[in-house]
Write a structure and sequence with these properties.
Blueprint (H helix, E strand, L loop, with lengths): L2 H7 L14 H12 L10 E6 L2 H10 L5 H4 L2 E8 L1 H9 L9 H24 L3 E5 L6 H7 L6 E10 L13 H4 L9 H17 L9 H10 L6 H7 L6
Antiparallel strand pairs: 1-2, 2-4, 3-4
Helix pairs in contact: 2-6
Protein name: Oxygen-insensitive NADPH nitroreductase
Enzyme class: oxidoreductase
EC number: 1.5.1.38
Length: 243
């Protein structure tokens, strides 16, 4: 395998970082690498907020569920889906802009995720560690107010960046046969059962936060209750009406 494929297969979430700062020039290079990601119709429907204010970082850490590494990593970014910039650009040409379409929400969210993943891979190629922070959607309105996000912009997730101060194991993924289908969708119960056995061994043996569970049981909290039921109303208020 080439170095890029090996790097992609070695991803780990890093939650402990050294005090070493990230050079500003490198951070800018990472953002530019992010901009190189595929984007629907060249819309580039994203904005990245580099949260430097320490008090704001600490507040976001609490809003995201007490994730203290948000406050202690070298740099913290919030990736936002942004339909404000492209719709206003189109409007300035005389277009009769229709806002609030579901497709606009999908385009902006997908664009943002693709851009962020490019940043993540570029960061890891430079020896940095990253951790996505979906917990900012626990309190998205408060995060939006703190970052002064305008209408038609919403925070999708955060990202901690820094030089790692830990060496966690790579978490196993589902077998390729479970996610790659030929021609038609097929059931994958056997692969999931096998993967549960793999994940149980991983959780029992890993060097930190070991526990007796597996993949299927670990998913239970995500589906036992409604997950972030506030998001639909929040998105509608942000101008993503899902028409």
């Amino acid at each position: 395998m080439n170095d890029v494929i090996e790097l992609l297969k070695s991803h780990r979430s890093i939650r402990k970082f050294s005090d070493r700062p990230i050079p500003k020039e490198l951070l800018l290079e990472l953002i530019q690498a992010g901009q190189g990601a595929a984007t629907s119709s060249h819309v580039q429907a994203y904005t990245v907020i580099h949260v430097k204010n320490q008090a704001n970082r600490e507040q976001i850490a609490e809003l995201a569920g007490g994730q203290g590494y948000i406050a202690t990593c070298a740099d913290f970014l919030v990736f936002c889906a942004d339909m404000k910039r492209p719709t206003e650009a189109s409007e300035r040409t005389g277009a009769n802009v229709v806002r609030g379409m579901t497709e606009q929400l999908l385009v902006a969210t997908v664009d943002t995720a693709l851009m962020a993943q490019n940043v993540a891979v570029a960061a890891e190629s430079e020896g940095l560690g990253i951790c996505y922070i979906g917990g900012i959607r626990n309190n998205p309105q408060e995060v939006s107010d703190l970052l002064r996000l305008p209408k038609h912009v919403y925070p999708v997730f955060g990202m901690c960046l820094g030089y790692p101060d830990q060496e966690p194991e790579v978490k196993p993924r589902l077998p390729v046969e479970a996610v790659l289908k030929e021609d038609y969708y097929t059931e994958d119960g056997e692969q999931v059962e096998s993967f549960d056995t793999t994940m149980q061994a991983y959780y029992r043996a890993r060097s930190s936060s070991n526990k007796d569970t597996d993949w299927s049981r670990n998913l239970k909290p995500l589906f036992d209750n409604k997950l972030r039921p506030h998001m639909r109303d929040f998105l509608i208020k942000r101008g993503f009406e899902m028409k």
